[in-house]
Design goal:
Helix content: 10-25%
Largest sheet: 18 strands, mixed
Number of domains: 2
Number of helices: 4
Order of helices and strands: EEEEHEEEEEEEEEEEEEEHHH
Strand content: 35-45%
Length: 404
């Protein structure tokens, strides 16, 4: 798999100064680019949908998104007329509340950054707040099952993990419909949180969501985003720090089939000293007009001395007709950092790997499955929930079998 390189910071470099801008094209299947300006937006973050212009597709944050397939989420024509079945399985000691939008915990982790996220904030009836008490260590995950039954729905969920607590959170999306939602994760000082979001929608579903994580002092947060289903999925995982010593790990995997549009737009804002972040997203694509978009933005503010950050995106294109847009962005406002860098690579299936396996008596179809499974295995094994890991491996196998 060839790795795009066009400046000292693209690829595996780690730097202590702002990178130079530029772009590179890898054949006809992918575009990798970078910018010294992270998160160029047409409007500043706001909870008011009126503060965002209706996008036309030429804006930086919308240029990859097929707006017509958003079913009216972007222009205000979508109305809440659908049904979303929700089931929350919470271990003992965890509280689950339904609250009004004036609850002080709503929006504390972050503000909507585009019109769809603001529309979701303005349209939900009541928010759900899940609280893990201080110093509580959960032996079982908090599981949220969301199953769409058609129509358009909006939602807002807050996970409030108090100081020195430890929790695993799993949100599982299935079914059909049009869904716009915001998720806030408040990670208290010294807490440890793993947040898993699985998008296993039916092929006709549309899903947009902004994930906001606010990481406390000396706390650790792991985000795992897994996207398989849906006609269009557009997710915004975002991290900020409430104090020094915080650590964030953002992992993701996606398998994009014919006609699907899967878009992941990440932002890590280092706004506190001596914090760490590590981003690793991997995707595989197959089929005509399969389109994956990965935007990885890291902003190191002047106050964030001692930052250590790295982001990487890898894409494996299995068939002709698929396209990847991979855009790592890195902006550094202080030279007093431990390290910063990013990498982006997209390539076709490695024929040499296939030949190596086939030379040892493994049939071509099985060899192909082994290579793709190995490509994803590193991320799957870090989820930490056995039944989810097994399900994802089985899903990858099913995707590959369907293409044979």
């Amino acid at each position: 798999m060839a790795e795009a390189q066009n400046s000292p910071t693209l690829g595996s470099a780690r730097v202590g100064a702002p990178p130079s801008a530029g772009s590179t094209t890898a054949g006809a299947i992918a575009v990798a680019a970078e910018s010294t300006v992270a998160t160029r937006m047409s409007a500043p973050p706001s909870f008011d949908v009126a503060d965002f212009p209706v996008p036309h597709g030429r804006e930086e944050e919308w240029r990859f998104t097929p707006l017509a397939r958003l079913k009216g989420l972007h222009d205000g024509t979508a109305v809440a007329n659908g049904t979303m079945k929700a089931q929350i399985d919470a271990p003992e000691g965890v509280t689950v509340e339904s609250v009004e939008r004036d609850d002080e915990r709503i929006g504390k982790a972050g503000t909507p950054v585009d019109r769809v996220a603001a529309q979701a904030f303005s349209s939900f009836a009541k928010a759900t707040v899940v609280t893990v008490p201080k110093e509580t260590v959960l032996a079982e995950p908090i599981r949220v099952a969301l199953h769409g039954e058609g129509g358009t729905t909006f939602g807002h969920t807050v996970f409030d993990i108090k100081p020195f607590a430890e929790a695993i959170i799993v949100i599982d999306h299935t079914g059909d419909g049009v869904r716009a939602a915001n998720v806030d994760i408040l990670v208290g000082d010294g807490a440890k949180v793993t947040f898993v979001s699985v998008q296993d929608w039916d092929d006709t579903a549309v899903h947009t969501s902004q994930h906001n994580a606010l990481i406390g002092r000396d706390a650790s947060f792991k985000s795992v985003v897994v996207t398989f289903g849906g006609d269009l999925v557009r997710l915004h995982p975002r991290v900020t720090y409430a104090g020094p010593g915080g650590e964030a790990e953002m992992l993701g995997l996606y398998f994009t089939d014919a006609g699907q549009h899967q878009e992941h737009r990440l932002l890590v804002t280092h706004d506190a000293p001596h914090c760490k972040s590590n981003v690793v997203y991997k995707g595989a694509l197959q089929g005509q007009d399969a389109h994956a978009v990965w935007i990885g933005d890291v902003l190191i503010e002047k106050s964030a001395e001692g930052t250590d950050t790295y982001e990487m995106n890898r894409n494996l294109v299995l068939t002709d007709g698929a396209r990847v847009d991979s855009v790592p962005n890195l902006e550094i406002e202080t030279g007093e950092i431990v390290g910063a860098g990013h990498a982006s690579a997209t390539g076709r299936f490695d024929d040499e790997q296939l030949f190596y396996l086939q030379a040892r008596g493994i049939p071509a179809d099985e060899a192909r499955r082994l290579v793709v499974r190995g490509f994803f295995a590193e991320l799957v094994q870090q989820i930490g929930v056995a039944d989810i890991e097994e399900r994802l491996i089985a899903k990858i196998e099913a995707e590959l079998a369907a293409a044979v």
